[in-house]
Write a structure and sequence with these properties.
By secondary structure, the chain is of the alpha/beta class. Helices cover 22% and strands 26% of the residues. Strands 7-10-6-13-15-16-26 form a 7-stranded parallel β-sheet, sandwiched between helices. Strands 19-18-24-20-21-22-23 form a 7-stranded mixed β-sheet, sandwiched between helices.
């Protein structure tokens, strides 16, 4: 049904009146049934250019994770292609956004023992990073003492502007760039040519984001690392000896186009990567169905060939149902804090002090008081947000300016204040950001404060026309408690497409992460920031994702026979739900206890993931059964899987996908007691002879029964099944604000604890 709706909708969009039919070209991605290629054509490219469109229109030909092509066509040309019987589906190109040294230790990694030692630091694993490219000269990308490039590697080192074959080495084993979708104009004509004054037409990174994520996943040891004195120490990635393959799909100030991302998936899998790290997604917290989502489609093609794919959950938290990259074959990663902070302090003229954070590294204010001003008191929104050209220099010159967070980049607000003659800035969170703080390398003395502090400072100013303040900076503090805390910006569940699958899967370090940086821009990324820094400190689920990519590389190196699903399961079932005070993790936005809608299975704990005991494995057939269960038709499923499928006569249920978490959905109109049953299979990857017993933490008003209650493994018995029945009493269940309640189911043999989160949710009836 979904497939016919998709084609009908697109056909209506394309079969427009003749007067409009030859409108401006757009990029379309076409899924082709490759089995129907006539034998007369030697390649798919020959077929596409003979029967579908002109060679000059084609941007990318896909033949590894996806069969088809992307082309720049006007609507009538696209409608003509769509009528060909071999076309399974088509969709317009879209623009995506990037989800922007202490973290390896915080994950439990230690030199000479544990996972680092057992995996040889990931030395033979190749991580493909889809991002803005790389600045290869950084120490993080040294190949000193690395062995030869793995012989299975088939990739290339593409050259271009400021990037030569010598920029690849035994560490950066390959580099490619994908710009055709961007240059063709992409979605609605957005994009166009590359601006060669600010970009490199090559894998070289003009933005910094890609260099940062690549070194987070697999950066080598870099001694005496810091960002202008902040976070000083030894910088290193999660898998320091893993190899990197760079796929530049995102361009400075232009985002990342689906057609280019899909081409990168196609190339990376053919090249021979083991892990793909993609800190990219929709920027609005809205997810497309899997058959319209090239990240989901490309990732399926990768996972079906044994490649692990780690993706960022998005930065639209703390709003509920904001998590993106929802496909069950993807690892979806949210962000948490680490035990390091960069405190700053606002001191008011009445002596009160308000805590905040900052990465300002210039001349301090040395305790001198300056008049305070809040442009927002005028009621003009652009002034309260310190937008470009919104501030009157006569009002802010020589003063500390209070700016509200939102709309324009945080560091850009500081630049606006500086250009208007302001001395410093207090960046105040709104209610939506709560107390969640992110450090920034501001160009003037500046301090970020939470919503409560911001309101208190504004209130003081409104009742004291001569109010003044100063800002103090305290450098780097290590050993912060509690940590981790769920970052306020980290996208949250429930899963907006299929709530039967809990997303995000887990969280990893994503706040104030030090990693390598480009020389093309300063640490703020602003055009007027001319500072150069080898390392930068960034926050976002973009930073959390490569931590999991590096972790996957270590697990793949230690367990080369594990599937992507087994690797994900090992991370999820061993994830931690407590902080370094051994208390329940909290939510930065509210200060209250966090839930699995915030952190999924918990916080990545690599010390335990190496030896999880049991794993929940999945095959391609399991994912197909899931797609049948959510009522995708065979043709729609083929858009994702490449191959024709037949759904079983008896409709499967999506919650029986062998996922490491369990989500029970009940109708809010149900009265009395309602029950649901779930089927799971566990595979023993620990000691050959083991006996596991079940332990259940049932939420109040919910009963959970498991059969059997004991699993006995032996040399001949490696896989065992069990059933879970969850019953909810609508009179006694106490749901939280999200309409859910949470518990867990664990299997333990005395050494391992294999924990699965249980989510019980009441949904409005359709």
């Amino acid at each position: 049904m979904a497939h016919s709706f998709l084609l009908s909708l697109l056909f209506l969009l394309l079969t427009v009146p003749a007067a409009l039919a030859n409108g401006s070209p757009k990029t379309y991605i076409f899924r082709v049934d490759s089995r129907t290629k006539p034998a007369i054509f030697p390649t798919h490219y020959h077929w596409y250019t003979s029967e579908f469109t002109q060679p000059s229109n084609i941007l990318h030909v896909y033949d590894t994770v996806f069969h088809g092509f992307s082309a720049s066509l006007n609507p009538s040309q696209a409608a003509s292609v769509l009528r060909h019987p071999s076309i399974l589906a088509a969709f317009e190109d879209r623009r995506r956004q990037l989800h922007t040294t202490r973290s390896p230790q915080f994950l439990g990694l230690r030199n000479q023992r544990g996972l680092w030692s057992d995996s040889d630091y990931g030395s033979d694993v190749i991580i493909g990073v889809f991002d803005t490219g790389v600045w290869p000269e950084r120490r993080s990308f040294s190949d000193l003492n690395l062995g030869p490039v793995p012989s299975r590697w088939k990739g290339v080192c593409e050259t271009g502007a400021k990037f030569t074959a010598q920029n690849c080495n035994r560490k950066i084993v390959g580099a490619r760039f994908f710009s055709k979708g961007h240059e063709a104009g992409g979605f609605g004509g957005i994009g166009g040519g590359i601006n060669d004054t600010i970009e490199f037409r090559s894998p070289r990174d003009a933005d910094g984001h890609g260099t940062h994520t690549a070194s987070t996943a697999a950066g080598r040891y870099a001694f005496r690392a810091s960002m202008s004195g902040y976070a000083s120490g030894i910088a290193k990635g999660v898998a320091p000896k893993a190899r990197l393959a760079i796929y530049k799909v995102c361009w400075k100030n232009a985002g990342c186009f689906d057609s280019d991302i899909l081409a990168a998936f196609d190339a990376a899998v053919a090249d021979g990567v083991d892990v793909i790290s993609i800190s990219i997604g929709g920027g609005d917290g809205v997810s497309s169905p899997y058959y319209l989502d090239p990240i989901a489609i490309g990732a399926y093609g990768a996972v079906s060939r044994g490649v692990f794919v780690s993706s960022s959950a998005g930065n639209d938290g703390p709003n509920g149902m904001s998590v993106t990259n929802l496909a069950p074959w993807l690892m979806t990663v949210g962000a948490g804090t680490i035990d390091r902070n960069f405190p700053a302090e606002v001191v008011l003229s009445d002596g009160r002090k308000f805590s905040g954070v900052s990465l300002y590294a210039g001349s301090p204010l040395k305790g001198k008081m300056y008049p305070l001003v809040y442009p927002g008191k005028s009621g003009v929104l652009s002034a309260s947000l310190c937008m470009e050209n919104s501030l009157d220099p006569n009002e802010v010159r020589g003063k500390i300016v209070i700016c509200d967070r939102g709309s324009n980049p945080r560091v850009a607000k500081g630049m606006v204040v500086k250009k208007a003659g302001g001395i410093g800035m207090i960046l105040a969170n709104g209610v939506s950001n709560g107390e969640g703080l992110v450090g920034d390398a501001h160009l003037l003395p500046a301090c970020s404060v939470g919503s409560y502090e911001g309101n208190a400072i504004k209130s003081f100013l409104s009742s004291n026309t001569t109010a003044s303040a100063t800002i103090n900076f305290y450098g780097t503090v290590i050993g912060v408690k509690p940590a981790p805390v769920v970052a306020s910006f980290s996208a949250r569940g429930p899963n907006g497409l299929n709530p039967e699958i809990l997303k995000p899967d887990l969280i990893a370090p994503g706040v104030n992460i030090l990693a390598a940086w480009t020389d093309a821009v300063g640490p703020t990324g602003l055009d007027l920031d001319t500072r150069k820094t080898e390392f930068n400190i960034l926050s976002g689920t973009s930073m959390a994702c490569p931590h999991v990519s590096g972790a996957a590389a270590l697990l793949k190196s230690a367990h080369p026979d594990w599937s992507p699903a087994a690797i994900r399961s090992a991370m999820m079932t061993t994830a931690s739900r407590v902080n370094n005070k051994l208390q329940a993790m909290t939510d930065e936005a509210t200060g209250k206890a966090a839930t699995p809608y915030d952190f999924g299975a918990g916080h990545l704990n690599l010390d335990l993931a190496m030896d999880p005991g049991l794993v929940y494995d999945l095959t391609n057939e399991d994912y197909v059964t899931f797609l049948c269960a959510i009522e995708y038709g065979p043709k729609t499923i083929q858009v994702i899987t490449r191959s024709p499928v037949n759904c079983p006569m008896k409709k499967p249920v999506p919650e029986n996908l062998n996922y490491p978490s369990i989500a029970a959905l009940f109708s809010s109109s149900a009265t009395g007691t309602s029950s649901k049953s779930f089927f799971r299979t566990v595979t023993n990857v620990g000691q050959t002879n083991a006996v596991y017993r079940v332990k259940v933490e049932a939420p109040k008003g919910v009963s959970v029964s498991v059969k059997p209650t004991k699993l006995v493994f032996s040399e001949t018995v490696r896989k065992l099944n069990y059933y879970v029945t969850i019953s909810m009493d609508s009179k006694n269940v106490v749901l939280d604000d999200s309409g859910a309640v949470f518990g867990s189911l664990s299997w333990t043999d005395g050494k391992h604890i294999v924990r699965s989160t249980i989510t019980v949710t009441q949904l409005e009836p359709l």
